[in-house]
Amino acid sequence: MQLFNKLGTLTKPFEPLKNGVFARLYLAQTVSLLGDAFTWVGLALISYQFGKENAAVILASALTLRVTAFIVFSPFAGVLADKIDRKKILYITHFIRMVIVACFPFITDEWQIYLLVFLLNIFNAFFTPTYKAIIPHIVSKTDYRQAIGLSTGTYQLLGILGPGLAGIVTIWFGARQIFFIDAASFVIAGILIFTLPGNQIQGPKAVGKRLSTWQDVLKGVRLLFGNKLLQFALAIEFISAVAGAQILVNTVAHVKSGLQLTDKHYGIVMAFFGIGASIAAFLSGSIDKSRSRTISLITGALFLGFAIIGANYLSYYPLLLLWLLAGLGQSLAEIPSETLIGETIDEHEQGKVYGSHFAFSHLWWAIAYPIAGYLGTQYPNTNFLIGGFMTLGLLTVTVLFFRARNKNQLTFEGNPKITSM
């Protein structure tokens, strides 16, 4: 009996796949994510073709443009997801992205990389919030957290496996030809999207006075920051970004310069981080079943803070365990905000709130990256120590602030659905 219970726990994250509509949507997103891994591996190789000394600058600029597109366009995407046919948004943006990806093999100048990356991520900014807004409408309430965890866990897992698979395919087909494989993956995902029942994935129509697009964008922001549960989750998400940026930006220098190790060791260290994030994401729906997700949020931030605070002074093998712990913390700290939107925001408002959340979550990283870069440059021997103290300090201030504001309670009890300020 205990064996069956353990097996049930292991298979619980995959329960939402019994829902045929979600299974197709999930598979389409998985194929798309695998294609994204091909895109960035191919882009790195093309950047290298423009000169070894320029590759890092080109990639950094491309990532900056990617985040900028998300911050600027995601709120409008969320509004459209509430107003027009979501199925059309999914397949139109999907096939436009396919065409853009198919243009990458023909790049002849650096500016073309920037243009195509920006255009690609404009339409990515429209696809992702719409995808997230659909999930609460096609899975049951009991499976919703597992569905979000499964989607996020797959994202993390493909972040580990995808580049390796893309590298193998590149050996066979070449750096530029890999983009045609990528474009083909969009076709497969697009076919799966076409099979989705439009009436099931469309949210309910809004009632009352119809707002302009800009008013809807502002309403999405107000709803996001006006929800007490989401306020705390967003604050923790910012803390998570501060710690996570330290890992993504400064690990390579620490492993190669500080520990005097190789690219292979760096890859293994980051794989441990991704594995930890994947495990926590897959199990997130079962770890903390409270309404506020406070345990998950605080635990995640604590894991991150304690994982990085001593990293400057540890050798390779302890670092692997710490980065595994940090990966666990990253998912525990970031996933709750997505599930809370589906559980506390009215259905006809969720699209605009998902769009706003997608924008602000990337804004947190846009703030955190320069901080990590500054610490890595100015304090290379203590960057993780400082970052760890910042993480734990911000967490302490955040918890004390919300505890005082909410009369010594972190489990906020308010209306389960918040629709206006």
Structure in words:
There is one protein chain. With 421 residues, the protein is mostly helical. The chain contains 15 helices and no strands. It has helices at 2-11, 20-49, 52-83, 86-103, 110-138, 141-173, 178-194, 198-201, 213-226, 228-258, 263-287, 294-309, 316-344, 350-378, 383-405. Helix 14 runs antiparallel to helix 15. The protein is globular, with a radius of gyration of 21 Å. It starts with a helix and ends in a 16-residue tail after the last helix. The relative contact order is 0.14.
Which key terms come to mind for this protein?
single chain; 421 residues; mainly alpha; 81% helix; 0% strand; globular; disordered C terminus
Question: What's a concise summary of this model?
Answer:
Helix content is 81%, strand content 0%. With 421 residues, it is mainly alpha-helical.
How are the elements arranged and paired?
Blueprint: H1 2-11, H2 20-49, H3 52-83, H4 86-103, H5 110-138, H6 141-173, H7 178-194, H8 198-201, H9 213-226, H10 228-258, H11 263-287, H12 294-309, H13 316-344, H14 350-378, H15 383-405
Helix pairs in contact: 2-3, 2-5, 2-6, 2-7, 3-5, 3-9, 3-14, 4-5, 4-7, 5-14, 6-11, 6-13, 9-14, 10-11, 10-12, 10-13, 10-14, 10-15, 11-13, 12-13, 12-15, 13-14, 14-15
